[in-house]
Amino acid sequence: MKLELNDRVALVTGASRGIGLAIATTLAAEGAKVALAARGADALKAAAATVGAHSSVHLADVTDPAAAATLTHEVEQRWGRLDILICNVGSGASVPPGRETAAEWSRVIELNLFAATNTIEAARPLMARGSGDRAIVCISSIAGMAALGAPVTYYGAKAALNATVRGLARPLALEGIRINAVAPGNILSADGIWARKIAENKQAVDDMLQREVALRRLGTPEEIADVVAFLASPRAAFVTGSVIVADGGQLRS
């Protein structure tokens, strides 16, 4: 399927590794011009080399609203417009259930919710000035939909992100912007948590997959990127306000 992304301008946050890098690479392969944003300069440069010539790099910590505003200004200066926004900043690392503090709640929500809302707020005026199909895709998690052993703070932040996506769908539609989320399950990347768990105890991971996941395997960043690229494309022009699960059949409802 041709996704009709030639010459579209996309901004991907958290783009230096894992799912973010896979998304940036996939969008570029579909013909998009891709602005990559992250906090680490060296990793960003390496990512840009992977993505290719039609990319730009932007150092930004989008948990800071001012940094998110500067980022979108840089994208406008470099590419002239913004058609696609991918909000990919987030982390499930937190304290064990029952040990949450106010400070930890703030940190996790800032990373998993405010990083997205800051970037959406900053990018919205630029995207609204565009023409044609414009799209925002937020990377959520199945942890925002069910209790699966993740930290409680992460559940709360991702559930709030899912609700935000649904709530913004109607007002953004009036500006010609669609918004959706993708909720991945367990994804294996080179430097991710599942690579570490496999190294520590592969049998335990295999047992979990046999017991909990219908497809009995971990997903890949590239599989998530394919779903994101579809949602970001005009091929998904009638899809907005949705949270699309990509978890190999782990959720049971």
Structure in words:
With 253 residues, the chain is an alpha/beta fold. It has two domains: 9-184 and 220-246, 3-Layer(aba) Sandwich (Rossmann fold), CATH 3.40.50; 190-218, no CATH class. It has helices at 18-29, 41-51, 65-79, 102-128, 152-173, 193-212, 221-232; strands at 9-13, 33-38, 55-59, 84-87, 134-139, 177-184, 243-246. The chain has a seven-stranded parallel beta sheet with strand order 3-2-1-4-5-6-7, with helices on both faces. Strand 5, helix 5 (152-173) and strand 6 form a beta-alpha-beta unit. The radius of gyration is 17 Å and the shape is globular.
Helix-strand layout with pairing:
Elements: E1 9-13, H1 18-29, E2 33-38, H2 41-51, E3 55-59, H3 65-79, E4 84-87, H4 102-128, E5 134-139, H5 152-173, E6 177-184, H6 193-212, H7 221-232, E7 243-246
Parallel strand pairs: 1-2, 1-4, 2-3, 4-5, 5-6, 6-7
End-to-end C-alpha gap: 29 Å
Question: Judging from the principal axes of the Cα atoms, what is the shape?
Answer: globular
Please report the total strand number as a whole number.
7
Biggest pleated-sheet summary: 7 strands, parallel
**Averaging pLDDT over every residue, what do you get?**
95
Q: Output the radius of gyration.
A: 17 Å
The CATH superfamily name of the largest domain is NAD(P)-binding Rossmann-like Domain
CATH class of the largest domain: Alpha Beta
Helix percentage: 40-55%
Q: What proportion of the residues form beta strands (DSSP E)?
A: 15-25%
Lateral arrangement of strands in the main beta sheet: 3-2-1-4-5-6-7
Order of helices and strands: EHEHEHEHEHEHHE
What is the CATH-assigned architecture of the largest domain? 3-Layer(aba) Sandwich
- Total helical segments: 7
